[in-house]
Amino acid sequence: MKHLMIILVFSICNSCAIAQKVEIQYMANEGIKISSKDREVFIDAFFDNEFEAFDFLSVDTLKQIINQGKALRHSISLATHLHGDHFNPALTGEYLLLNPKSSFIAPQETISNFEKRFSGFAEVTERVKPVNIELHQQVALHLDWVKITIIRLAHMGDSPWKEAENLAYLVELQGKKVLHVGDALLDEENLKALGVSKLNIDAVVLPLGQMMTKDQKELINEHIRSKQILAAHIPIKYYDQAQSLLAELGYKNTLVLNKPLKTYLLD
User: Fold this and answer.
1) pLDDT confidence of 73, banded at 50, 70, 90?
2) I want to staple 191 with a disulfide (CB 3.0 to 4.6 A). Which of 137, 151, 223, 233 is the partner?
3) Coil, helix or strand at residue 254
């Protein structure tokens, strides 16, 4: 198992195709798939019914998605943290077993949980990349077909939730930039640490619960400045209200992720 510290570089392919359209498919809760032709990046996509409040895909649906991807030449899965509504060791293990050219990246804490709970870990260990960085540090990952900047941010909530090692991922694919912050606390300290205000981000995935005050909206607008905000991690009971609640706060160019498997094209 290879540790990812300040710079990690590894190669999955030797050539890149002409730029193609980039899509974001909403999986469930905060899970997404970013794809372009035969390239795909999953973030927080493989989890089960851990909490009744949040949406999830059935195991059968997830297995179909995992199996469909095995023919792809370029595929990688990222987990922001180890909580069960973002990561499931068995489903992540099956993804790696069925996609022999794929890799999995996650915080060291999540990888330790994966190793302990997935019986087939020894078979996939060479493609598992733990990220071991301190709070607000960054690492850069360069592949032939994608660049991923990884930033550790404090997790939202009270103990024990806030102790989780939480990573944000800035994925650059075919000229598009997609930011996913996991369950980050969206306060000024965390948002400053992101350092993305001048990067012209195309889309950012944010947890709804960290967007619901005017102060949070102002901080998000100041420090992220994304063309599109995708609100996720929405309790099912608020699915129908979320868009209007955000509009009342004055958010612009915001989409609510409340329709599992719906796909959005990045302009």
Assistant:
1) confident
2) 223
3) strand
Exposed (0-12), middle (13-18) or buried (19+): which is 11, by Cβ within 10 Å?
exposed
Domain boundaries along the sequence of the chain: 21-196+260-265
Residue 84 has pLDDT above 70, yes or no: yes
Q: Tell whether the torsion through CA atoms of 19, 34, 153 and 142 is positive or negative.
A: negative
Sheet holding 254-256, edge to edge: 7-9, 138-142, 147-153, 166-173, 176-180, 203-207, 229-232, 254-256
| Residue-level pLDDT at 8 | 42
Gyration radius of the chain's alpha carbons:
17
Ranked by mean pLDDT, which of 49-53, 70-74, 86-90 comes out on top?
86-90
Both tokens of 11, joined, read 């190669």
> Tokens standing for 264?
């959005």
Q: 21-196+260-265: which CATH number, 3.30.70.20, 3.40.50.1820, 3.60.15.10, 3.30.365.10?
A: 3.60.15.10
The reported pTM is 0.92
> What integer pLDDT is reported at residue 16 of this predicted model?
41
Q: What is the pLDDT of residues 89-105, one digit of tens each?
A: 999 999 999 999 899 99
Q: 61: exposed, middle or buried (C-beta count within 10 Å: 0-12, 13-18, 19+)? A: middle
The pairing of strands 128-131 and 263-265 is unpaired
Query: Which one-letter amino acid corresponds to residue 41?
Result: V
Other beta carbons within 10 Å of 148: 20
